[in-house]
Design goal:
Blueprint (H helix, E strand, L loop, with lengths): L2 H9 L9 H10 L1 E5 L4 E3 L7 E7 L2 E6 L5 E7 L4 E2 L1 H6 L6 E4 L3 E7 H10 L1 H36 L1
Antiparallel strand pairs: 1-8, 2-7, 3-6, 3-8, 4-5, 4-7
Helix pairs in contact: 1-2, 4-5
Length: about 160
């Protein structure tokens, strides 16, 4: 993929949509291109986050460790997904493991570069808040549906 194609990919992500093309080109140029094979982890829950990732191509599962030691796949991501930002924004360990389910091409954006962009483009901070709010809303809807289903099962067993 050429630098110009990477810039176009970044432009399609709401977080980066309002950044001028020359800055997107710099972001694409300074980002590290990484490839993960099916089954390889992009990041692991509990690890320290030092970068965020843009999925250029492929798919991956978002998996969380449950208290009983089991694992739960909570989402599948694909092209144009932006992941790993929670650990660098909140300075907390990774909240999930991201495991490739196909050949996965990514751009790795270092924490320092990410924060330089946020400082230079305040609209990006607003987009981050919107992005996180949408994800929180989707999570709340899933939790509500799961809770309702659990109640139905409990009432049916009584």
């Amino acid at each position: 993929m050429s630098l110009n194609e990477e810039v176009e990919l970044l432009r399609k992500i709401p977080l980066f949509a309002n950044i001028e093309p020359s800055k997107l080109k710099l972001l694409a140029f300074t980002s590290e291109r990484l490839t993960f094979q099916d089954g390889q982890d992009l990041c692991v829950q509990g690890d320290i986050g030092d970068a965020a990732f843009v999925v250029v191509d492929g798919t991956a599962d978002v998996i969380i460790d449950l208290p009983d030691g089991s694992k739960l796949t909570v989402d599948q991501i694909g092209r144009n997904a932006f992941v790993g930002e929670i650990a660098i924004l909140c300075e907390v360990p990774r909240t999930a493991t991201i495991t490739a389910t196909s050949k996965l091409e990514t751009l790795r954006i270092s924490k320092d570069l990410f924060f330089r962009l946020v400082n230079e483009f305040p609209t990006m901070a607003v987009e981050i808040m919107r992005y996180q709010a949408h994800r929180q809303d989707a999570t709340n809807q899933l939790l509500t549906a799961a809770n309702n289903r659990l109640r139905e099962l409990e009432n049916g067993a009584a």
